[in-house]
Amino acid sequence: MIKNENQNDDFEINIEENVLSHHDQQYYKLKLIVLGDSGVGKTNIIKKYINDEFSTDTKATVGVEFFYKTFKINNDIIKLEIWDTAGQERYKSITSAYYRGSRGALIVYDITRVSSFESIERWIAEINEKVTGSLKMLVIGNKVDLEEERKVSIEEALDKAQSLNVPLLETSALESTNIDKAFKLLLKEMYKEFKNQQNIEKKENKSKSEGLSLDVNNKKKKSRCC
């Protein structure tokens, strides 16, 4: 279930494997970070998406791991770089580098653990503190395959998501529920923001170039002698 999802489908996402093997193709890198308390399933979510893998014996991530997947969106080749890190407070010292340059964030909680749900606001506050510039967020309630053990209701989660003005999607890494959808939803918003920034920069550069040209012409006129 999704709340506050942007339904604007003005472009499509087409996945092509190994597109970066063509050296003559230019690509853009977009960084996505995955946050949440330890044990909520961050690594399994990423590995299910990247390699269609799931492990019941996944050990807590120590430090940072990197994953990536390539896409073609419209005429752009996009390399999505996904950063996975530990949720434990003792690894907090790595977060400055971890957040740097991020354009998107998946914030994950476990629907069977209230404490992980309550941490959502802390993770969002940390994003706002560490990240400069625009960053797109999506909250994920993971482990819906454990419905009988659910401690966080859908209604409660939707209320919090609405209060934070962040979209919400429930997933299961074990059963692949909404995993692909979550990443594509966030990637689409990241890409749209990236293209908007590109257009703004082009306009600014054009204005500067035109201003420089006018300035040079004026100087030439002033240098004329009698």
- Please estimate the helix content: 25-40%
β-strand number: 7
Q: Low-confidence spans: pLDDT under 50, at least 5 residues?
A: 1-9
Radius of gyration: 22 Å
Whole-number mean pLDDT: 82
**Number of H/I helices:** 6
User: Beta-strand level of the residues, as a percent range?
Assistant: 15-25%
Largest sheet: 7 strands, mixed
Please tell me what the overall shape is: elongated
The strand order across the widest sheet is 1-3-4-2-5-6-7
Distance between the amino and carboxyl termini: 77 Å
Category by helix and strand content = alpha/beta
Question: What string gives the helices and strands in order?
Answer: EEHEEHEHHEHEH
Structure description:
- This protein has 226 residues and is α/β, with parallel strands linked by helices.
- It has a seven-stranded mixed β-sheet with strand order 1-3-4-2-5-6-7, with helices on both faces.
- Strand 3 and strand 4 form a beta hairpin.
- It starts with 12 loop residues before the first strand and ends with a helix.
- 32% of the residues are buried.
- The chain has six helices and seven strands; from the N terminus they run ββαββαβααβαβα.
